[in-house]
Amino acid sequence: MSIRTLDDLLAEGVSGRRVLVRADLNVPLDKQTGAITDDGRIRAVLPTLGALTEAGAKVVVCSHLGRPKGTPDPQFSLSPVAGRLGELLGAPVHFATDTVGESAESTVAALADGEVALLENLRFNKGETSKDDAERGAFADQLAAFGDAYVDDAFGAVHRKHASVYDVPARLPHVAGRLVLREVEVLSTLTGDPERPYVVVLGGSKVSDKLAVIEALLPTVDRLLIGGGMCFTFLKAQGHEIGTSLLEEEMIETCRNLLERSEGKILLPVDVVAADAFAPDAAHDVVPANGIPSHRVGLDIGPETVAGFAAALRGSVADGTANARTIFWNGPMGVFEMPAFANGTRGVAEAIAESDAFSVVGGGDSAAAVRALGLDEKSFGHISTGGGASLEYLEGKTLPGIAALEN
C-alpha cells in the first residue's frame, strides 16, 4: 500500500494554500443541553490541524455529525464543535452555517494564512451519502472547490463510500493525515504478525455485528474473550438458560459452530450480573452464567469472569498461559453507562491497561468507556477513533477511504 502523507504535503509547502481536511468530529452531545460530552475525536485531529496552521495553510475542515436525513437539522449542527475546536487550537475557528453555499464560500474566501474554518454538517446535503455516483460526484465537485489539496484525517469514516471520503480525493492532490496514518500502521500490525500471545476481547450487544471479525480472527488469535450482550447467544448455544437476556435466535447455530471450531480458544462468562429490569436502579445480583433466572436479564459479566478474563490477559501460572503480548479490545462487557453494571467493563479495561501487552482499543463504545470510566488513556497502546472502520480493517475488507488515498 502506497499512501502519500501529511509530511509529504508539508514538504511541498502549504503556506497560503487552501487545504481541505476531512475530519471525524462526530462527537456525542447531551440531548438536553447540546453540550459536547466527549471531545476525544476533536482532540485526535489536533496534530494534523496544528501542523497545517503552523505551516501557514488556510485550513478548511469538514465533517459529519449524527445521522441527519440529507437536510439541515439544528440538533446535528457542528456549531458547538467549532467553539470547542477553537478552544483546543487556541485560536478562533470560523464557522460556515452551510456546507457548500454562500456562507461556506464567503467564510473560506476570507481565511487568512494559518486560520481555520469549519463547514456545517456534511450530511445536511443528500450528495454526501448518496448511492448515486453522479449525485455524490456533483457534491464532491463543490467541496473540492474549497481546496488546493485534500487531507483525510477521518479514520472513523474511511469505511464509508461518501463524497467527502471517496470522491473528493479523486479531484485534488490527496494525503493521509497524522491520525489516519497512525490508525493504519497500528491495525496493520494486528493483521500481519502480531507478537504472541495475541488475545482479543469482544463485547457489545450483537453477535451478528461481530460475526465477520470473529471469523477473520479465530484462526489467528490465541484466545478470544467474549462478553457483553453478545455472550448470551453463545451461552444459549451451549444449552444454558439465559432468562430475558439479549438473544439472537438466528445466530444460535452459528455460535455453536464457532465454539466447536475454536479449539478451546473462546472463553465465555462463568457468572453474570442479572437484574429484574433494564434500568439503572433495578434489583440485581451475581448468578452463574448457566443459571440465569427466567425473569432476569443479564447486564454485565460477573466478578469471577472478570478474574478469569484478567488471568487470560495477564497470564496464569495455574494453567501455564503466558502474559498476552498483543491485545485488541472492541465492545463493552456490560451496560457500562449504568454504574451498577459497569464493573465488568472497568475490570477488563484495567486488566488490559495493567498488562505488558501492546493494547489496541477498537474505537466506538470501548473508547467511550475508557473516558467515561476515568481510565488513563496513556495506559493503552492505541485508542482507535473508528469502531466500525477498525473492525472492517481487521476483517480484511477494502475501505473506500483508504483505497481513495492509495497512489
UniProtKB/TrEMBL annotation:
Pathway: Carbohydrate degradation; glycolysis; pyruvate from D-glyceraldehyde 3-phosphate: step 2/5. It holds the Pfam family PGK. One of its GO terms (biological process) is glycolytic process. It catalyses: (2R)-3-phosphoglycerate + ATP = (2R)-3-phospho-glyceroyl phosphate + ADP. It is an enzyme of class 2 (transferase). GO terms for cellular component: cytosol. Its EC number is 2.7.2.3. (2R)-3-phosphoglycerate binds at residues 41, 123, 160. The keyword Nucleotide-binding applies. GO terms for molecular function: ADP binding; ATP binding; phosphoglycerate kinase activity. PROSITE patterns: PGLYCERATE_KINASE. Keywords: ATP-binding, Cytoplasm, Glycolysis, Kinase, Nucleotide-binding, Transferase. ATP binds at residues 210, 298, 337, 363-366. Substrate binds at residues 24-26, 41, 64-67, 123, 160. InterPro entries: Phosphoglycerate_kinase, Phosphoglycerate_kinase_CS, Phosphoglycerate_kinase_N, Phosphoglycerate_kinase_sf. It is found in: Cytoplasm. Belongs to the phosphoglycerate kinase family. Monomer. This is Phosphoglycerate kinase.
